[in-house]
Amino acid sequence: MKKVLVTGGAGYIGSHTVVALVEAGYEPIIVDNFYNASPKVIDRLELITKKKIKCYNVDCCDASKLDEVFKEVKPHAVIHFAGYKAVGESVSKPLMYYDNNLTSLLKVLECMVKYEVKNLVFSSSATVYGDPKSVPIYEDFPLHVTNPYGRTKLMIEEILTDFAKVNPDFRIALLRYFNPIGAHESHLIGEDPNGIPNNLVPYITQVCIGKLAKLRVFGNDYKTHDGTGVRDYIHVCDLALGHVLTLKRLDEVTDSLYIYNLGTGKGSSVLDVLHTMEKVVGHPIAHEIVARRPGDIDACYASPEKAFKELGFKAKYDLYDMCKSAWEFQENNPDGIK
Ligand code: UFG
Predict the structure, then answer these.
(1) Residues of the chain with pLDDT under 50
(2) Is the CB of 275 within 6 Å of ligand 1?
(3) Closest Cα to atom 11, ligand 1: which residue?
(4) How far is 85 from 101, CA to CA, in rounded Å?
(5) DSSP label at 129?
(6) Distance between CA atoms of 315 and 80, rounded to whole angstroms?
(7) pLDDT at 228
(8) Which of 35, 168, 214, 239 is the most buried (most CB within 10 A)?
(9) What is the Cα–Cα distance from 149 to 168, expressed in whole angstroms?
(10) How far apart are CA 288 and CA 207, in angstroms?
C-alpha cells in the first residue's frame, strides 16, 4: 500500500482528501499542528474510514521533527495542504503568512530531497489568476496576486517551478482550486471555521442556524447575470478525488511539473447560492445588499478541460448537492467539530 504524507490533513480539504485516499487504496499519514483544525477530526476520519489513521502532531516549519516523520514514514508521495489561508488576516499579518507558508513548503521539500520522496501535490488556488482577463480561466492565463495569502501561493508555485527544472526525476503537480464548499456525506467532517466565517457558504449556514443575523451580499453591481459576484463552487469531495487522480497521474508521467485547475467550469452568483440554500432549508434566508468587499472580482470560473483530458477529472456534484451537504454538516455540528 503506497504511503502518502498529507500535511494539513486535519483541515477542511485535507481531511476529505484523506478519506478519498483510503477509498482509493492508499495509506494516508497526516502531519498537522492543529493550529486551525480540531484533533477530533482524526477520530472522525477513523469512524468514516473504519481504519486507524496515523497522525503526527508536528508543525511543518519544525525541520527536525519533520525530518523524524520522513525518516519513519518514508512516504511514496506528499500532498502539501498545510498553510494559513485567510485573505484578510494575511493583509494585516503579512510576515506571519510569508514565514509560515513559505517555510513549511521549503522544509517539506528539503525532506523530500533528503529521503528521495519524489512525488508532490501542492495545494494552490485560483487566487493566483487575480482579476482574469476573461472567463473561463485556462491554466496558461497570466498570473497576478493582490494580497499576501495569494502571494504565498504564487511564490510557492514559482519555487516549485524552479525546483522542477533542475530536478527532472521529481513529479510535481500544482492544483489550483476554485471555491470548495460542502461536506462529506457522513456529516462528520466539513468546513469548520474559527470565529465569524469569511467565506460565503459557511456564513450562510451560520445564518440558517441562528448564529448570525443575516447574510451581507457584497455588491450587486458586478458585471454578472444578476449583479452579484460569480464563482466556481466545487464540492470538497470532488476536489478530494482530484488529488487521488493527480497522484495516479504522477506515477505515469515523465515531465517534472504539471498544473491543473480544479473547478466545475460553472459559475454561480451569490444570489444563486443563496436561493439554492433557501431550497435546501425550505425557508427564506435573511440578507441585505451592502457595499462591495475590497479586492473582490466580478467573475471567476475554471476551464476544467485540461484536468478532464489529462486526469479524467470531472466534478459530479451540483450546487444543490453542495449546499445540502454544507447545511447538513452545520446542523449536525452547530458548534463545529468539538
Ligand atoms: N460574499 C458575500 N458575503 C459574504 C461572503 C462572501 O457576498 O459574507 C461573496 C463574495 O463577495 C464573493 C463570493 O461571495 O462574490 C464568494 O466569496 P468567498 O469569500 O466565499 O470566496 P472568494 O471567491 O472571495 O475566495 C475564495 C477563497 C480564497 C481563494 C479564492 C480562489 O476564500 O482563499 O476563493 O478563487 F483564494
Answers:
(1) none
(2) no
(3) 218
(4) 9
(5) G
(6) 22
(7) 98
(8) 239
(9) 29
(10) 12
Q: Is residue 289 part of a domain?
A: no
Whole-number Å distance between alpha carbons of 334 and 338: 10
Is the previous residue joined to 148 through a cis bond, with omega within 30 degrees of 0? no
Question: Pick from 194, 175, 189, 145: which is nearest to 80 by CA?
Answer: 175
Tell me the CATH number at 119: 3.40.50.720
For residue 200, how far is its CA from the centre of ligand 1 (angstroms)? 6
pLDDT, tens digit, for every residue of 103-123?
A: 999 999 999 999 999 999 999
pLDDT at 338: 87
Hey, what amino acid is at 56? Y
What pLDDT does residue 76 have?
Answer: 98
Mutate to test the pocket of ligand 1, among 36, 270, 275, 290 (most ligand atoms within 8 A of CB): 270
Full residue range of the structural domain in which residue 163 is found: 3-183+233-265+302-316
**Closest to 111 measured CA to CA, from 161, 69, 160:** 69
Q: Cα(116) to centroid of ligand 1, in Å? A: 38
Residue 135 lies in a domain: yes
Pocket test for ligand 1, best of 191, 293, 301 (most atoms within 8 A of CB): 293
- What gap in Å lies between CA 178 and CA 136, rounded to an integer? 12
Letter for the amino acid at 309? K
The verdict on residue 176 lying in a domain is yes
